[in-house]
Amino acid sequence: MARPSGRDIRREVIEAASHAIQSRGVTGFSYGSIADELGIKAPSIHHHFPHKADLLAAAVAQYRAQFRQRVEAMEGRSARDRLEAYASLFLAPAERDLLCLCGAAAADWTDIDLATRAEIEMFFEQEITWVAAQAKQAIDAGEFASRLDAEAFATTFVAALEGALLLARMSDHHAAVPGTASCLLELATNRTGDR
Q1: DSSP characters for the chain?
Q2: Other residues' Cβ atoms within 10 Å of the Cβ of residue 170
Q3: Are residues 85 and 103 in contact, defined by beta-carbon separation less than 8 angstroms?
Q4: Cα pseudo-dihedral 86, 92, 94, 100, rounded to 10
Q5: Which residue in 49, 54, 70, 63 sits closest to 103, CA to CA?
């Protein structure tokens, strides 16, 4: 809801919380720290999000929706090309010294509420399902080996990209993300005699 000042405080709060989660985790911010960052009073945040759990769920839901829009924009390429483009979605936060918001929130699993957990579970289910569908298309097109288990590949691919983000952040070596994706895609690639 826009304030008389013309500022969309709700949007600003979600963006600030999202950045905080990606850089410091779920427990790494408070309403006070967000209020200070935005130059507002904490009650302004409570007006939109009565509890921190409400803000967390909103931040994760927004991230999930935006991520899905980026993924859906990848249509029209080969399955392997789409998977390479998918990996680049994980490189973008690494270049800004951030983590995937859902991965960062999942790391604080015991500190988050059920609604936020459900949003995180939906994110990973959606992403693994999408990657598995791309892997199946790549197998059918002969890009990937017929012996490949598409579901196992998808879980491994998403988990490896999340892990590569952690390594990239720890070592300040962003190439860990595309390197991990390239390695897995190469291992999945169809070789003469694989079909």
Answers
A1: -B-TTS-BHHHHHHHHHHHHHHHH-GGG--HHHHHHHHTS-HHHHHHH-SSHHHHHHHHHHHHHHHHHHHHHTTTTS-HHHHHHHHHHHHHHHHHTT---HHHHHHHTGGGS-HHHHHHHHHHHHHHHHHHHHHHHHHHHTTSB-TT--HHHHHHHHHHHHHHHHHHHHHHT-TTHHHHHHHHHHHHHB--TT--
A2: 9
A3: no
A4: -60
A5: 63
Tokens representing residue 15 in the block: 């963006």
Ramachandran assignment for 167, one of left (phi > 0), alpha (psi -120 to 50 degrees), beta (any other): alpha
Lookup: tokens for 65? 């929706």
Residue written as tokens 């029209």?
Answer: 76
Residues of the chain with pLDDT under 50: 1-3, 195
pTM of the model: 0.89
Q: What percent of the chain has pLDDT over 90?
A: 76
Could you confirm whether domain 9-188 is CATH 3.30.450.40?
A: no
Tokens of 77: 């390429």
Q: What DSSP line would sit under 81-94, residue for residue?
A: HHHHHHHHHHHHHH
